[in-house]
Design a protein that fits this description.
CATH architecture: Alpha-Beta Barrel
Structural class: alpha/beta
CATH superfamily: Dihydropteroate synthase-like
Radius of gyration: 17 Å
Distance between the termini: 15 Å
Length: about 280
Amino acid sequence: MTLNCNGRLLVADRPLIMGILNATPDSFHAASRVASVQQAVDQAGSMLTAGATFLDVGGMSSRPGAKLISATEEMERVLPVIEGIMSAFPAAYVSCDTVYAKTARAAVAAGAAMINDISAGKFDPELFPTLASLKVPYVLMHMPGKPEDMQRFTESYGEDVVTAVWDFLAEQLGVLRAGGVHDVLVDPGWGFGKSVAQNYALLRNLSAFKQLGVPILVGVSRKSSIWRPLGITPAESLAATTALHLFALQQGADVLRVHDVTEAVQAVHLWELLAGEQPG
C-alpha cells in the first residue's frame, strides 16, 4: 500500500490501524468521544504509542438514526482537534471523517492527510471535484440512504449483497479516477444499511473486494452486529471485535478502523505469525 498523504508518501507492507476519535456528544461508543482538544491530543498520543498509523477525527455521528449536521457545526468540532493533534504530533496521519467538501478543504489545510466519507460523495456534489485538488487519500464507503434512514434499505440488495456493494464501489471508483482521484481505499460499510446476516456475508466474502485493486478498510469495531447477537453491550464487545479483526485480516483487510488500538495491533501481530511472517 502506497498513499500520497498531503505531500507525504506512506508506504506500508503490513495492515495498518486507524484509531477513532469522535469529537461528538452522541457517537455510539462513549469511550471514543473526546470532550476537549486536550483530551483528543492525549488520546491521540496513546493511540500513536500503541501502534496506530491513522487517527480518524469525526464531528458527526453516523450511528443508525443520527441526523446530518451542517458543515459549519462539523468544522467547529473537528478543526481545533486536528490542529491540536498536528501541533503535538506533526508526523501523525490524521483522517477527517466528513461528507462535506468545505470541511474536507479546511481539514487538509489544518494538516489532515486523508478524507473518510460515509456517503461516497452522494451528499455534497462538490466533494469529488474537491478531492482531486486536495490530493489526499479518500476512503470510499458504501451506505444506502442516510444514517437516519439507512436501515430501511436492507431489502434493497436483491439476493446478493456482496455483488450489490461491489458493483457500487466499482462504479464510484470509476467516477473518482475519471475525476483525477487516484489514492482510494474502499470500505464495504459494515453496519451501514445492512442486516446482521448481510454484514457477515460481506465480511465472509471480503476477499472479493481485492479485485477492485485498491486497499480495503474494515470498520466493525464494537458495532451492533457484534454485540446484539451475543446478548452483550458495546462496552463488553472488545474480545468479539478482536476475533472479527483477525478474520478480516485473513480475508485481506488492509486497514482496521478501531476503537481499541492495542488489541487491534495484537491481532495484526498474530495474523503475521499465522501467515509465517515476522511481526512488524
